[in-house]
Design a protein that fits this description.
With 421 residues, this protein is mostly helical. It is built from 20 helices and no strands.
Amino acid sequence: MNRVWWVWGVGVFAYVVAVLHRTSFGVSGLAASERFSAGPGVLSSFVVLQIVVYAGMQIPAGVLLDRFGSRAMISTGAVVMASGQLALALTESLPVAIAARVLVGAGDAFTFIAVLRLVPQWFAPRRVPLVSQLTGITGQLGQVLSAVPFTILLADAGWTTAYSSAAALGVLAFVLSLAVVRNSPPGLAVIAAPAGLREVGRQVRAVFANHGARLGFFTHMGTQFSITTFALLWGVPYLMSAQGLSATAAGALLSLSVVTAITSGIVIGILSGRYPMRRSLMVLTVMSSSAVMWAVVLALPGPAPMWLLCLLVIVISVGGPGSMIGFDFARMMVPSTSMGTAQGLVNSGGFLATLIVLQSMGLILDAMGGYTFESFRVAWCVQYVIWAIAVTGVLVFRRRARAEMGVTVRPLRDAWRDRRG
């Protein structure tokens, strides 16, 4: 097997384990309520704090990535997350459990952008969009691990065994990352970004001012948060309490989400590489489709039929691969020496939106009496505020990015007519 695939494969394995750590609390939300005697508001605070740390660490993690490279960041993230999961496995104290989720959020922040940074270093430019998509969607297999084997282990063997097993996988990811991952192929050294505070500050300001990075930020914000909110915390309680599904059926829908992400991610990766000037149209289509699908489900006076819930999960799950287009925008316009910082900025968009929606939904559910059909219907509506902001941001910075690049994109209707003619 070619060395490039070993390096990439171990990096992706570390990301799979990171996603397992990230989503494990969501599928064990009801068990956590009993273990820590926590209501919906406190329960959402667990995940919200984790996402606050994750989103807040994106820029520092990006700066560190530019300085120290992927190998150090992936291995550090793995051991930090394993420590958090082990602490969560052993404690029954609410403050300790919250601190454990902070560790998970911090380690998680190091992982994805570091794995993504490996792709342009080890693969030919024409393969980068597709391999980037494969990185994101393969990593989501961690959600399957949390939805199926982790959930079964939690039910059969208990909280401590389930979370200790997750921690053990984190240790394995740490060992493999140190042994196999390298920042770049032999003879192709990665130039480290400046280390001084003044130089770092200049670098961060330049990335924040870059229209491609800003376009990527709003792309990630508007595409990823709905399925992430669903998978991280509120999806399973919603499906079980408001829609009346069993735990097995709810887990099956989360697995359907992963299958959808894998399938659609391959298509989006190919289209993004082949039609780079139509990427924003793909992004806007993903956002509007999710908004319409939620409107249909939430407008029903009672629980939705199973086929409609499946369709909802399929549509919003395309948002995960869709968010990867944000990194393509950043790669087009940000210098390679600042790419880690730019990826951190882009990645923070979706998770900033996620934490806002997570916390808002928790507060609404508390105020309306808990896990009822009506309270969930109102709570999910906060998504539309994020979509409005994200669509506006994409339209504004798409125009500015095109102007800066000196690119004029013909209307799709005209291009299609000429192609047919």
